[in-house]
Automatic annotation (TrEMBL):
Taxonomic lineage: Bacteria, Bacillati, Bacillota, Clostridia, Lachnospirales
Listed GO MF terms: hydrolase activity, hydrolyzing O-glycosyl compounds
Signal peptide positions on this chain: none
Top-level lineage group: Bacteria
Family, per entry: Belongs to the glycosyl hydrolase 2 family.
Protein name: Beta-galactosidase
Gene Ontology BP, a term: carbohydrate metabolic process
Domain Glycoside hydrolase family: 669-764
Residues in Glycoside hydrolase family 2 catalytic domain copies: 305-550
Pfam families hit by this protein: DUF4982, Glyco_hydro2_C5, Glyco_hydro_2, Glyco_hydro_2_C
Alphabetical list of InterPro entries matching this protein: Beta-gal/glucu_dom_sf (IPR036156), DUF4982 (IPR032311), GalA-like (IPR048230), Galactose-bd-like_sf (IPR008979), GH (IPR017853), GH2_Domain-Containing (IPR051913), Glyco_hydro2_dom5 (IPR040605), Glyco_hydro_2_cat (IPR006103)
Domain DUF4982: 599-656
Keywords of this entry: Glycosidase, Hydrolase
Glycoside hydrolase family 2 immunoglobulin-like beta-sandwich domain: residues covered: 190-297
Organism for this UniProt entry: Anaerosporobacter mobilis DSM 15930
Length: 924
C-alpha cells in the first residue's frame, strides 16, 4: 500500500473499530410478512449490518487485530491451532463521506482477514471472501452515504473452521484502507510495469494500465507513465495508447514502452528500486495518480544449473515462514515483519517463501531489502472463486522485482492425479493471464513422479522433504527445474542441550527431526551437492504457534524454527551462517555456561566453516581437529568453572573464535531493540528484547524469573519468551524469562519518547530505556462516528388535512402505505407548497440498553413537529421556520421502540417542511 501514499486520497481504517466475539444473526427477528418482505430488499440486512444496531458495549480495537491472542490455552482445543479456540466475531465502524465524494469511486481495501469474512456496507452484503490469506477490495460506491448520513461498515468473520494445520489466528489481522478516486480512474492493481532486457545495455519497459469508469458518462483521458531513479531524475516516460475515450461503466487498457539504457540492476546485494508514476489526465488536469516501485532484473531457472539472477547462477537460500509472532499472533506490524526478514538475512538467506500466506507488506519489505520471494496461493482449486483469488494475488505481486516464483499449491493429495493436473493447469493459466513473466510451480510431498500428475504441466517442481528422491526425479524429468520447497523440519528448543521427551524438550545439537524430515546437516548436504537443485526453503525461519510436532499438550508451539517465536537465536542459526556465508564462522553449542560439577563430561559441538578448530579450556588446548564442512566438529571436555573457547583456522591462520563462560549470579537486565527510533505513522512497533546477565555480561542460561514491563507513551501489543510449552498470557505486561530471555512488542502513542521500564522484582533488578519517536507525515485516518443514527424511517404515502393519529393501525401485510425515506439535507418534496398539510414518519429504532441522560438530536427539522415514543408524546415544537430539536429519552426505555414524527407545514413565507437531517441518539 505504500505506492498509494501520494496521488490518491487514501485513508487508513485501522483505528476505532468496535468488536465483539460472538455470532449475531443478520436475519430479521420473525418470519412474518413484514419482516420477510423488508429483508428481501437492498440494504435490509439486520443485526450488526444495520445502522440502528446498538454496539455501545463492544470493545474498541485498532488494527491489525487477532482476537485469539487473548484466549486461554485449552487442552480440548486443536494442537494445530496452538490449543486456542477461534470462533466467530463482528467488527463495526461508522464513518462519514463528504458531499464532495459523491462523484468518486469509493473503495475499501482489506489486506487480510482470518478466515471466512462477509463485508456489509449500509445494510447490504458487498463481499463474501472465503480465504484468510488473500487481499481484496470492495467497491462501495453505489451503496455509499454522503453528507450528514454516516456509513455503517460491518464485517463478520467466521473462524470456526480452518484452512491450515497451524495457528491461523482470527480477525482483521492486516490493514484496511479507504480509497477515494475520481469518477474515471486507474483501476485497483491495474498497472503492470515489466522491464525486459533487449540487449546487453538496453531495456524495454512494458507498461499497461487499466482505466475504469465507475459512472455513466464517457470521458476523454490520457495516461502518462514517468520513470524516476532514486535521486528523482527522470529516466524515461511514455504516453500510453489504445483508448482515449472511456465509456460509462467501461474498463479499458492502454499500453506503452519506455526505453532505458544501463539501469542499475535490482539484486540481492544492491536492491535498487526505481519509481514509476502513472498519471491519468482529463484535459490538463491530473485526476488520478499511482506510484509503483520497480526493479530491473532478469530471472531464469533451468534443470541443469538451477536459478539465475541477472545472468549469475545463484542458489536460492530461503526459509518458509508462517505469519505469527510471539505475543501478537498474526496481527504483526510492518516493522516487526521487516525485523524478521532482516534476521533471516543475517543468516545468509536470499529468499523467502510465503508459506502459505501471500502478504503485500512482505513484498514491499523484500523489494527494499533484496530478498527473492516465492508467492504461494493457499487454496488448491479451479473453482471460479479460487481463480479470482489467484488473479488478485498475482495482480498485487507482479510489479515487485523480489517476486521470482508463483506456487499454486502445497502438499495436496490430488497433486499426482489427473484431477490435480487439471487444477494445476487452470491455476497456471490464471497466473499467466495476469503475469507470464515468472515460472509457475507447486510444492509436492508426493505424486511428482506421476506422468498424469501436476508436475508434468507446471514450469517448476518443488519437492517437500524426501531429498533422496531428487536424483530419481531429475533422471526421469531431466528438463524440469527442481527446488527443495521444504527441507529439514529439524527440532530444537532454544537453550536446551539434553532431549527429554517427558518434558517436551529437544536438544540443540541438530540430532532430532520429524519422521518425514532431515536434520539441518543432512538436508543441506542433499541440496548443496546437486547443482540441478535450484535451492532450498528451510522449514522454518521462525517457530510458530500450533503444530507442536513431535508432541501434543502441553506443547502449544512448534519446534521447527531456526529462530524461536520471538526471533531469539537458536543454535540452528549458526548452521546456516556456516553454510551460507563466506565470512568465517565459529560457534559453540554446549551447556558450559550453566555450570556443572567439576569433571562432568560435556558434549561440545562447534559449528564452523573453517578448516580446523581448536578447543581450549581456561586457555589450555584440549584438542584440535579438522572440521567437516557439513557435519562440523565435536569435542568432549571435562567441566571446570571458567571459559571454553573454540578457535577456527583457515590455511593454518586463526580467522574466527567463539567462547562460553560459566555464568555468575544475576547482576542486571540487558535490553536490545529491533530498531532504535520509532515514528508516528501509526504502523510502527518495536521488539524490546531483555536478557538477564551476570556482572561479566554473560547471559544467565536457565533464568526463569518474571519480568514486568511498564510503558510510557506506548502500548504493549503482546509479550513472549520463545518457550513452545508456555501457557502464559500473550496480552499483558508480565512474562517469565525463558533461558534468560523475554520480549515485549510495543507501539508508540505519540511523538517524543517511549519509556520502557523493565523490572525483575524477585531479583530487585530494573532497567529503563527511552526510544525516540519521530513525527513523520503519514496517511490520514478515518475518524469513526460514535453517534448512532436512527435509520430505516418510512413516510406515510399521503399527506393529512388534519392532525393524524400518531399510532395508526397498519396491517403486517401492508408494505406500501409507508414508503422508505432518507434524511439527507433537504426537506421532503412531498410537503413542498403543501401548506397546512401534515406528514407522518415512523421507524422501529433500537435504543440500546436502558440508561440515563440519553436524547435524540435532530439538527434541522422544518415546520411544526411532534415526536412520539410508542404513541406517547415526547416533545413538540411550534416554530414553522425550523431549527434543531433535542428530545430526552426516558431512562427505562430500551431495545426496539416505535418512533413517530408528525410535521405540519405552516410557513406561508417559505412553504417547505420536513426532516432535513438524520435523527441521532446521543448521551450527555
Amino acid at each position: 500500500m505504500k505506492r498509494y501514499k501520494k496521488g490518491q486520497q487514501v485513508y487508513s481504517l485501522n483505528h476505532g473499530w468496535r468488536f465483539v466475539e460472538k455470532d449475531i444473526s443478520v436475519l430479521p427477528p420473525t418470519k412474518q410478512h413484514d419482516d420477510v418482505y423488508g429483508f428481501s430488499k437492498a440494504g435490509a440486512y439486520r443485526g450488526p449490518a444495520d445502522a440502528n444496531y446498538d454496539d455501545a458495549d463492544w470493545e474498541i480495537v485498532n488494527l491489525p487485530h487477532d482476537w485469539v491472542t487473548k484466549h486461554d490455552f485449552v487442552e480440548e482445543g486443536s494442537p494445530n491451532q496452538g490449543y486456542k479456540e477461534r470462533g466467530i466475531g463482528w467488527y463495526r465502524m461508522r464513518f462519514e463521506l463528504s458531499e464532495e465524494d459523491r462523484n468518486k469511486q469509493i473503495l475499501l481495501e482489506f489486506e487480510g482477514m482470518s478466515c471466512d469474512s462477509q463485508v456489509y456496507v449500509n445494510g447490504s452484503i458487498l463481499k463474501h471472501n472465503y480465504s484468510g490469506y488473500n487481499s481484496f477490495c470492495v467497491d462501495m460506491t453505489d451503496m455509499a452515504n454522503f453528507g450528514v448520513i454516516p456509513n455503517t461498515l460491518a464485517v463478520r468473520i467466521d473462524a470456526s473452521a480452518w484452512e491450515g494445520w497451524w495457528y491461523e489466528g482470527a480477525g482483521i489481522y492486516r490493514n484496511v484502507w479507504l480509497v477515494k478516486k475520481s469518477e474515471v480512474h486507474l483501476a485497483h492493481d491495474g498497472i503492470f510495469i515489466m522491464p525486459e532486457l533487449e540487449d546487453n545495455t538496453t531495456w524495454k519497459v512494458h507498461v499497461s494500465a487499466e482505466i475504469e469508469n465507475s459512472f455513466e458518462y464517457e470521458h476523454m483521458v490520457e495516461v502518462i507513465t514517468c520513470l524516476y531513479d532514486q535521486e528523482g531524475n527522470l529516466v524515461g516516460e511514455a504516453a500510453l495508447t489504445g483508448k482515449d475515450i472511456v465509456c460509462g461503466y467501461e474498463t479499458a487498457t492502454v499500453t506503452g514502452e519506455i526505453y532505458v539504457n544501463n539501469p542499475i540492476l535490482w539484486s540481492v546485494k544492491q536492491p535498487y528500486l526505481y519509481k514509476a508514476v502513472t498519471k491519468l489526465y482529463k484535459g490538463n488536469d491530473c485526476i488520478d495518480e499511482v506510484e509503483e516501485k520497480i526493479g530491473f532484473r532478469t530471472i531464469s531457472i533451468d534443470a541443469k544449473d538451477g536459478f539465475w539472477l541477472n545472468g549469475e547462477n545463484i542458489k536460492l537460500l530461503g526459509f518458509c515462514n508462517h505469519q505469527d509472532h510471539a505475543g501478537i499472533g498474526v496481527a504483526v506490524p510492518y516493522s516487526i515483519k521487516e525485523y524478521r526478514v532482516r534476521l533471516l538475512q543475517e543468516l545468509g538467506a536470499n529468499a523467502y517463501r510465503c508459506a502459505h500466506n501471500p502478504d503485500p507488506e512482505i513484498l514491499d519489505i523484500c523489494d527494499e531489502l533484496g530478498v527473492m520471494v516465492m508467492v504461494e496461493n493457499r487454496t488448491y482449486s479451479s473453482s471460479e472463486e479460487t481463480l479470482r483469488e489467484v488473479e488478485g494475488i498475482v495482480r498485487q505481486s507482479r510489479n515487485h522485482p523480489c517476486v521470482i516464483l508463483y506456487s499454486v499449491f502445497n502438499e495436496e493429495p490430488l497433486q499426482g492425479t489427473h484431477k490435480g493436473r487439471r487444477m494445476a493447469g487452470a491455476l497456471q493459466a490464471a497466473v499467466r493471464r495476469i503475469d507470464d513473466t515468472r515460472p509457475v510451480m507447486g510444492a509436492f510431498n508426493g505424486g511428482y513422479m506421476e506422468e498424469e500428475g501436476a508436475s508434468t504441466i507446471l514450469d517448476v517442481t518443488g519437492i517437500n522433504y524426501n531429498p533422496g528422491r531428487y536424483d530419481e526425479f531429475h533422471k526421469k524429468y531431466p528438463d524440469t527445474p527442481l527446488i527443495g520447497t521444504e527441507t529439514a523440519s529439524a527440532f530444537m528448543v532454544r537453550g536446551e542441550y539434553e532431549t527429554d521427551y517427558s518434558k517436551n524438550l529437544i536438544n540443540s545439537y541438530d540430532d532430532e527431526c520429524a519422521l518425514w524430515g532431515n536434520t539441518i546437516s543432512e538436508a543441506w548436504k542433499m541440496v548443496v551437492e546437486r547443482p540441478f537443485v535450484a535451492g532450498a526453503f528451510v522449514w522454518t525461519g521462525f517457530d510458530y504457534r500450533g503444530e507442536p510436532t513431535p508432541f501434543t499438550w502441553p506443547s502449544v508451539g512448534t519446534f521447527f524454527g531456526t529462530y524461536d517465536s520471538c526471533g531469539f537465536e537458536k543454535d540452528a542459526c549458526y548452521f546456516y551462517k556456516a553454510y551460507w556465508k563466506q565470512e568465517p564462522i565459529v560457534h559453540i553449542i554446549s551447556p558450559w555456561s550453566e555450570g556443572h560439577e567439576t569433571g562432568t563430561q560435556i558434549r561440545i559441538k562447534v559449528v564452523t566453516n573453517c578448516e580446523e578448530v581448536a578447543l581450549l579450556v581456561n586457555d589450555r588446548i584440549i584438542d584440535r581437529k579438522p572440521a567437516d564442512p557439513i557435519n562440523h566438529v565435536e569435542f568432549t571436555a571435562s567441566y571446570e568453572e571458567g571459559e571454553i573457547k573454540a578457535i577456527g583456522y583457515r590455511n593454518g591462520e586463526i580467522v574466527a573464535n567463539d567462547y562460553q563462560l560459566t555464568a555468575g549470579k544475576p547482576a542486571s537486565l540487558e535490553v536490545s531493540l529491533s530498531k532504535e527510533t520509532l515514528v508516528t505513522d501509526g504502523f510502527d512497533a518495536v521488539a524490546v528484547n531483555v536478557t538477564l546477565i551476570d556482572q561479566n555480561g554473560t547471559a544467565i542460561p536457565n533464568a526463569d524469573h518474571t519480568l514486568t514491563f511498564e510503558v510510557g507513551n506506548g502500548t504493549i501489543l503482546g509479550v513472549g519468551n520463545g518457550d513452545p510449552n508456555s501457557h502464559e498470557d500473550d496480552v499483558t505486561n508480565k512474562r517469565k524469562l525463558f533461558h534468560g530471555k523475554a520480549q515485549a512488542i510495543i507501539a508508540p502513542i505519540d511523538k517524543g519518547s517511549v519509556v520502557v521500564k523493565v523490572s525483575a522484582n524477585e531479583l530487585d533488578l530494573q532497567t529503563e530505556v527511552m526510544i525516540p519517536v519521530r513525527e513523520v507525515e503519514s496517511f490520514s485516518y478515518v475518524e469513526p462516528v460514535e453517534e448512532r443514527v436512527i435509520d430505516n424511517w418510512r413516510m406515510y404515502y399521503q399527506l393529512f388535512d388534519e392532525m393524524p393519529n400518531p399510532n395508526p393501525k397498519v396491517d403486517k401485510n401492508d408494505m406500501n402505505s409507508f414508503e422508505p425515506i432518507a434524511f439527507n439535507g433537504a426537506p421532503q418534496t412531498q410537503l413542498t407548497d403543501q401548506l397546512h398539510k401534515y406528514a407522518l414518519y415512523r421507524c422501529v429504532a433500537n435504543l440500546g440498553e436502558a440508561k440515563e441522560n440519553r436524547y435524540l438530536y435532530i439538527s434541522d427539522i422544518k415546520g411544526y413537529a411532534w415526536i412520539y415514543l410508542n404513541g406517547e408524546l415526547l416533545a413538540s415544537r411550534t416554530d414553522s421556520f425550523g431549527g434543531h430539536m433535542i428530545i430526552d429519552l426516558p431512562k427505562e426505555v430500551k431495545g426496539n421502540q416505535v418512533l413517530t414524527i408528525i410535521i405540519h407545514n405552516e410557513n406561508e413565507e417559505w412553504p417547505q417542511a420536513g426532516i432535513c437531517s438524520p435523527v441521532v441518539m446521543k448521551e450527555l
